[in-house]
Amino acid sequence: MAVATKILELSSILSLGSKILTNKASADFTEYSKRWTDIDRQIPAAIVLPTTEEDIQKTVQWAASASIPFVPKSGRHSEWSTIGEDGFVIDLTLYSAVEVNKEARTATLRGGILAKPVAVALAEAGLFTAPSSNLWLTQSHLNLALGNGNTVGAIPYFLGGGASITTSVTGYGSDQILSARLVTATGSLISVSPSSNPDLLWALRGAGQFFGLVTELTVRAYPLADLGNDRGVIWTGAFVFPLTRAREVAEAMKPLMDDSSKATAGLMMTVAPPPHGKPSLAVAARYTGDPADAEAAYKPLYDLGPLVGQSKEVPIQNASDATERIGVKGDFKRYGVVGLRRFEVDKFMETIEVWKELMAACPDASNTAFMFQWDARFAKDPGFESAMCLHDIRFWQNNLIWHTDAANRAKVDEYSDRYIAIMRGVDRSEFADFQNGTRTGPIELRYRGEERLEKLQRLKQEWDPKGVFTSQLLY
User: Fold this and answer.
1) How far is residue 20's CA from residue 29's CA, in Å, rounded to a whole number?
2) pLDDT band (50, 70, 90) for residue 133
3) What single-letter DSSP state applies at residue 379?
4) What is the C-alpha separation between 469 and 72, in angstroms, rounded?
5) Which range is least confidently modeled, 124-128, 149-153, 215-219, 267-271?
6) CA distance 452 to 26
7) How confident is the model over 190-213, as pLDDT tens digits?
8) Which string of DSSP letters, residue by residue, matches 200-250?
9) What are phi and psi of 108, to 5 degrees?
């Protein structure tokens, strides 16, 4: 029996208000099947939208008994949350909530809740947590969307590691996880906390997407004053230079990036922003602390006389608002993320030539941005061990691929791979892969340390030996 037909059995099991979409010509199916990226996008036999935690559990139990594969979705940003006619999608959009406990300084996230409503709810209580990484760069004729935080699913963001604009203050997103509720591969609903399944809590903090369907996550929050000012704001700056001045800017940036006495962080990138598409070197900057100290910290950039040099204070809950453009569904998009030990000017200059070649060969990739990310300070140490192993990394090469012509799919990837290969070199001790940035690279580069990887593989065998939630860590 075809999956689209058999799955209708769920109609008598799920609660009122839940949906089962099988008509591919319908507006609802079309909308819910969209993803942030069309790379390797498949069309499922059906899309199930549960409205309660019990619905989610029953759906997983039914799938297990029927031996039908599925993938879960929340913000629909994951490149890997896709499945074809042999399976279906569990879309958590209709089961979505956030509950803030101001006294305990926690937030409990449910189902498909997105990052923006979490940030708003916390700010209303005078709190914040490690927010999805975003920086802005804007001018009246320039609007570069750098990051996609508002529309990212909050739970998978925390489970996958969670790079943050407040990493030096809070640590990574996964460091904030206090407890969870999870549906296992066999359909059991379990609690995960320091006192209940503590090994699984260890794994959820950085590799949680591989062990079950997390229906609820409780995370740590912080008072807004921890941002270093009494207004709960982040200072953001935008600097734009002609690409011909790249070496001059890079040489000024190197000591700035290495000066841990000032809480600077941000992205330096080669871009061709609309509407004119002029090759530029842009710096999207951030300063955590008293905004009055930011201009002195970025004096080396102001002294260079940029084409654009502007700044503003942004409330932490609005840090992603200027990045809505990149959150649009569709087109061919991908983030390639590699952690590095240092910034090397000569390598950076070499990569600019690769970017120029890409722009000439693939005009449809004009939205592509190759970005070097820095934080002058290391991520806060959480004080415990977990699957997350990137606290010793404060430099990242972030390649945002974005193009529209399917014929250029492989070619654009080739240029991005060349760029990353230059920046990371060949010594594996000098770089690491962000764990939720790839599913194809060597897994030992995502989960470093033989003991850590062995523990993850052992837990995978215990909780998901058949690879219901991907085959990662099984082979």
Assistant:
1) 9
2) low
3) P
4) 9
5) 149-153
6) 46
7) 999 999 999 999 999 999 999 999
8) HHHHHHHHGGGT-EEEEEEEE-EEGGGGSSTT-EEEEEEEEEEGGGHHHHH
9) -105, 120
- pLDDT, one tens digit per residue, over 5-31 is 999 999 999 999 999 999 999 999 999
* Cα–Cα dist 129/169, whole Å: 10
236 forms beta bridges with: 286, 312
| Cα–Cα distance, 53 to 55 (Å, whole number) | 5
Residue 362 tokens read as 């693939």
pTM to 2 decimal places: 0.95
Rounded to 5°, angle at Cα 250 from 270 and 392: 90
Q: Which residue has the tokens 């990569």?
A: 351
What Å distances lie between residue 474 and 253, 277, 302, 386, 388, CA to CA? 42, 45, 51, 19, 18
Average pLDDT of the chain to the nearest whole number: 92
What distance in Å separates the CA atoms of residue 230 and residue 248, rounded to the nearest whole number?
36
Tell me the sheet residues that pair with 142.
Answer: 139
| Percent of the chain predicted with pLDDT > 70 | 96
**C-alpha angle 156/158/161, rounded to 5°?**
105
The pLDDT of residue 103: 97
Which 3-state string (H, E, C) describes 118-162? HHHHHHHCCEECCCECCEEEEECCEEEEECCCCCCEHHHHHHCCC
